Amino acid sequence: MLLNCGQPLLRHTDVPPRVIENFILTGYRFPNYSLRDCLLSAFRPTNETGNFWTHFLPVFIFTYHFVEVFGWRGAPDASAPFFYPLWNYFLGVFCLLMASSMAHLLNSMSLVVREVCFFVDYGTISAYTVGSSLAYYYYIHPRAGVADRGTQNDTFMYLSTGGKGGVMMPEFRMFFEMLYIPSAFVVAIICVLSCCNTRQRWRTHRYVIRTLVFLLPFLVSSTPIFYRLLTTSPYSAASPSLSASTSMASFFYRHCLWLLVSALFNISKLPERLAPGRFDIWGHSHQWFHCCTFLSILDELHMIKAEVRAILLHPDLVLPPNSLSQLPGPSLSSTYGVMLLLQTSIVSIILWFSWHANRIYGPQRDQLDQEQRKRQ
Ligand SMILES: [Zn+2]
Question: Does 65 count as an annotated binding residue?
Answer without folding.
Answer: no
